[in-house]
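Re: that chain you flagged

S.,

Sorry for the slow reply, it's been a week of failed gels. I finally had a moment to sit down with the sequence you sent. For the record, here it is as I used it:
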Amino acid sequence: MEQPTEKFTTPLSLVVDVVLLVLFFAYLFSVLKSHVPSNNPKLITLWAALAASCLTGVFWLALQMFRVVFRAYRAANK
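Prediction finished late last night. Pasting the structure tokens below so you have them in one place:
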């Protein structure tokens, strides 16, 4: 028999994730714009956005790993 599985993703957690990711992307985009070695504003925007999107993906993975570890930590302390 299959045991019922618990849903870990809620609409609130998805909203929190989206807000954190947008804020993180905006912050990194603003920081990375000054580090692009170009005088063309379109290229500066393109490369800053591409770099910020990659780093935002890594941030998302780290956030998900933190949630899993924290959930296991709470379950172990029960």
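What I noticed first: The radius of gyration is 18 Å.

Talk soon,
D.
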